[in-house]
Amino acid sequence: MNVSSWSIKNPIPAVLLFIMLTLAGLMAFKAMKIQQFPDIDLPTVTVTATLPGAAPAQMETEVARKIENAVATLQGIKHIYTKVQDGTATVTVEFRLEKPTQEAVDDVRDAVSRIRADLPGDLRDPAIAKANLAGSPILTYTVASSRMDDEALSWFVDNTVTKRMLSVRGVGAVSRVGGVSREVRVELDPARLLALNATAADISRQLRQIQQEASGGRADVGGAEQSVRTIATVQSADELARMDIVLSDGRRVRLDQVASVTDTVAEQRSAALLNGKPVVGFEIVRSRGAGEVEVTDGVRAELARLKATHPDITITEAFNFVDPVQENFDGSMALLIEGAVLAVIVVWFFLRDW
């Protein structure tokens, strides 16, 4: 059967098929997302184990090596990478491409669970997660205000900005960069502790019992069943300083008699600089399956509404990894249209008949 001659003799079915394919292509093209890289699912699993205060040598011998030996027996492993730092060990297990990702995660989780009893008791439960290529930031902004200090500005980013950004469709995570975190600091006086024959462990144990809120079960009140809570929390640093501490020998002292209690900020572990000046910033990470251009448009629209609500806030775009993606997309579309036009011209040049 000669398809070309049949289509020429019966043009209506050929034209209808062409129109249907064109409409389907336009609908599929409109539904496509603009991304730097496609959302591929790689069978790569990361195990992160944290032991605060441990040296890298201890993390290697007591944590990393045991996890490596446990996961090395799994089927389909291609490579194992280990990174050891102060108090943290990260083991990355790369499986072969034919290995299902969820099966790989389950196998690694089972392997780590089998050796959990052999790991140090103070070790936090290892975090097991699969590799996510959509987890890199696409936008970074800085926030400044003439009416807020670093602590208030950091809380504004953590509370207000994060909630508004997470409400945007396609935003997967918002993380603060720089700034400070509030902290109630209790600095013990060694001389007073020695005079009272007390230790820092006694004070820590008492504070752990004081600052606590837990469920207390249920009770029958007035013929109705109600939930009961045990509330033992303080509202301010001054209230915490006035708390009575029971020592091991039965004596009682106020916390401010053996320690200095201050409502301050925690030690900075990271800093953000813009033009050499410290600022408070936040990063936007898209969720899996979302388009980077759509997420950027939604974030910018929400930031515009946020600026209108808080006119004293100045938000500056520091890094943008979406504009190059948009430029590459526009360039690809220009080349696609140019190729289509040239194909029509070449066909017409040889046929000489519209």
Helix content: 40-55%
Shape: elongated
Low-confidence region ranges: none
Q: The biggest beta sheet, please?
A: 5 strands, antiparallel
From the N-terminal CA to the C-terminal CA, the straight-line distance is 26 Å
Query: What is the element string, with H for helices and E for strands?
Result: HHEHEEHEEHEEHHEEHEEHEEEHEH
Quote the beta fraction: 25-35%
Oligomer: single chain
- Coarse structural class: alpha+beta
CA radius of gyration: 31 Å
Mean pLDDT: 86
User: Counting H and I runs of at least 4 residues, what is the number of helices?
Assistant: 11
Q: How many strands?
A: 15
Report a brief summary of the structure:
The protein is of the alpha+beta class. Helix content is 42%, strand content 29%. Helix 1 packs across helix 2.
Molecular structure report:
This protein is an alpha+beta fold and 354 residues long. Helix 1 crosses helix 2. It has eleven helices and 15 strands. The longest helix has 29 residues. Strands 5, 6, 13, 14 and 15 form a five-stranded antiparallel sheet that branches. It has a four-stranded antiparallel sheet with strand order 2-3-1-4, covered by helices on one side. The chain is elongated. The two termini are 26 Å apart.
